[in-house]
Amino acid sequence: MKQKILVVEDEKNISRFLELELKHEQFEVTVAYDGRAGLELAMNEKFDCILLDVMLPELNGIEVCRRIRKHSDVPVLLLTARDEVMDRVAGLDAGADDYIVKPFAIEELLARIRSILRRVGQVKVSEQLQVRELIIDTDAYEVTFEGRKLELTRTEYDLLKLLIENLNRVCTRELILEMVWGFDNEVETNVVDVYIRHLRSKLQTMGAPYIETVRGVGYVVRG
Ligand code: CA
């Protein structure tokens, strides 16, 4: 069965774009153009994830999120404008799971949606991410290969987890930077290459040659 996503976004060009992209990714998509309509849909139908713009007519996204949270723990991803730092804080306080800053690359949005859905799915199915003999235990923050533990730093762990959550999809350097180091970090994209090198050599020491370079683009783990 297709996973259902609710998009609440008043800017028609953005909501239309999201609808097309998400449908292309095999999601079932419902769109609302103001906060009140979005809230009503969120209360009356079951969605796997909600993309919620902050600046909305009728009822703003923060308020919509707060009201949804009183009744439901459906994952909410906020869409915020670049300068709305306070909104992001308020949004996370209101119970949003994550946010993405506009304008965003669709690949980043899809990666965040997949991370959220996997996080939610894991609670129901399993606490592990696995590719062949490599297992990430997301409860214990532990990685093992053929039963042997890999000693990773927190950043290396986050990096590997991101790559495995996006199995068979290339993660660009920009995406990795945003997802692992965060939006307000002024680190250079070559930091990604340095960390990948560390991580890859640790994996190879164990006999796990998992991370492929896609030249000029980024990295991928294939399973
Ligand atoms: Ca808006």
Radius of gyration: 18 Å
Overall mean pLDDT score? Answer: 89
Share of residues in helices: 40-55%
How would you sum up the global shape? elongated
Strand content: 15-25%
Q: Strand pairing plus helix content: what structural class?
A: alpha/beta
Number of strands: 12
CATH hierarchy: architecture of the largest domain: 3-Layer(aba) Sandwich
Chart the SSEs and their pairings:
Layout: E1 4-8, H1 12-24, E2 28-32, H2 35-44, E3 49-53, H3 61-71, E4 76-81, H4 85-93, E5 98-102, H5 106-125, E6 128-131, E7 134-137, E8 142-145, E9 148-150, H6 154-165, E10 171-172, H7 173-181, H8 190-205, E11 211-214, E12 218-221
Parallel strand pairs: 1-2, 1-3, 3-4, 4-5
Antiparallel strand pairs: 6-7, 7-8, 8-9, 10-12, 11-12
Helix pairs in contact: 2-3, 6-7, 6-8
This protein binds calcium ion.
